[in-house]
Each structure stands twice: as C-alpha cells, then as structure tokens.
Predict the structure.
Amino acid sequence: MKDVHFSGSYLPSDCIFLLKPVEIAPTDVAAKERAIQSGAKHYSEMLSVEKTPDKRYMDLFARALEQNKNRFSAHLASLVRTLALRPGREVVLVSLARAGTPVGVLLHRGLKSLGRASAHYSISIIRDRGVDAVALDYILERHQDTDLVFIDGWTGKGAISSELKATVAEYNESRGTAISSGLVVVSDLAGVAGMAATADDYLIPSAILNAIVSGLVSRTVLNDDYVGPGDFHACMFYEDKRGEDLSRYFVDLLSPIVESFLYGKECAPLCAWGDEQKVSLKLCSDAFIAEAMERYDVSDRNRVKPGIGESTRALLRRMPDRLIVREPGAIDVEHLIELATVGGVPIEIDPRLPYRAAVVIKTLGE
C-alpha cells in the first residue's frame, strides 16, 4: 500500500490517521437513536452534527484541564516508562480513534523524549464490527507484529477491549501474525486492560471535547456507501472547525508536563495488576450494569454508560434518559451537569454509585 499522509490537524510527526476522509450527510440525533435501537442501522453507519461548544462549556474544559493536567500527565509518564521497557526495535503505538488519539500522541512524544524509537498510528475499531483489518495490514507492511501496542483513553464496560481481543485473534489466525490484543489505557474502570495507570474514575481532560481535541476527525464510520474493499474505515475531517481546534494546543501544553514527570524521581514503570484486582474491578462493573438494567428497566447493556468518559460521550451524541452522579458538587462532573441541564436530561444523585457518574440511554420504541 502507498504511504498515507493524513494527520488530521496534528503534525505528521505526531500521528498518522489510517482513516478514509469522506463527506457524510448528518443524521438527526433522535433519528439516529431510533435507527440504532430498532436495528435498522448500526451506530457506525451514521454521524450526527458535532456542535461547537459555547463559552461556558469551554470554560469548564479549561478548568478541568487546569485541575487534572498534572494527574493526567503523571499517569502518562508512568505508561511511557513502562512502554519504553518493551523488547523490540521500536514501540508502534496504535491508538483507537478518537479517545485514544491524543493519548497516543502524548505517549509517542514521551517515548521519543527518552530516545526510544516510536511510531504512532490512529485507527478505527467499532463495537460488533471489529478493528480495521486493512489498517493493520498497512501497519504490518512497515513494522513487526510484536511491536504493536493498542492505546485508548479509558475503559467503561470493557466492550471495546472485548471487541479488540476477539478481532485481533481472528486477524492473527488469518494472517499468521502474533499481535497482542492487550489494551493500554490511562484509566481502567472495567478491569479489562492489559496495562493501565489507574482504576480511578476521574476526568481525563480530552474526554470533554470531540473532534476539536482529536485532530478534527469525526467518530469513525463503517458504511458500505463510503467504505469499499481495501478501504480504511471512514471519517469526516472538519476543516471548518480549524478556528476552534485545540488538538495541538492540548498536546503542546501537556508534553512538557509529561516530560517533567518522566525525569522525576517518583516516576517508575508500572507494576502489572494482579488478577485479583482485575477480577474485583470486573465484578464491580458487571454488578453495576446488572443493577442499573434492572433498576431502570433497560434491556440492552449497551444503554448503560458507566464512568465520566462514557457519560460525556453519551450526553454529547446520544439521547440520555438520565445522568446519575455520586457527588454533584465535584469538579470532575461539572461539565456533565452542564450538558444535562442544557439538554433537559434529569439528574439523579446516588451516593452509592461506584463511579463518579453514569448515564442511562433512553429506550425508544419498546
């Protein structure tokens, strides 16, 4: 395959998106939700308009960034130190667009600052459809299979981690390769990641925004009208949002902070989590999902979104039935309260909630 030179709004040295830019007519959020729940269309076949955040919401982003930049950077530095110890000639970061993309950029920069050979690609993975095999083919034409590491921002229920494990296993079997499906994340709420800096449900600053902090690309699309045999999964590139774009600002601000932690005395490689800790996190996640499904009469576990990151996504692009928060006055949920208030979404306070926040998606047509 020919070399790809699509970096969104990032520098080419920071990230290569293995995505096919296309123009897609937007689908109304309510129509999209009905199509998803009726089974008429898969969520990956449609995109809705991404609204430009207003000043109040951007102020919340700035506050969250200031509040959590050191914590986030310290976690990234620990991941960099651990990844740098991997065997092999280089570390090939394969971030999952879009939540994994800014994390991938920062890890890539951190590895290079340590003198470690590194490459960074951002590719598509879609629940129930799998990882983009064409993108993996492209990467393996240029790199060793054992050097690949998958990157994401966080885990919620573990659906993407499960999808990754299943489809990478199929890919390895069909290609005779040995790619590891272990997922590297900053925060692993579900206890399913191969490596994580923490299990805490805290606000990763980039989770607040969509395209304007992720290289100006949309959520990835897999639709036969746009993606043919041999094509990467698709996306839209929002050239019209250049004026609001914070993608480079975000990584440029955090890179020196990550580097300062990298060379600090307290930065050490992460110890592997024991099975007991992973099992405990997974049991907590599964118990919460089951309880929420029964409590709110939800038939599909994909309509329960645990954690700040997943709650943010749901409020930005789905039709939520309610937002549940543990501490409504906490800084980490301010933006969720704002989104719910503006959107007319009921807010429920539950001090027993095992996460900072959760969202239940509205059930339509049942």
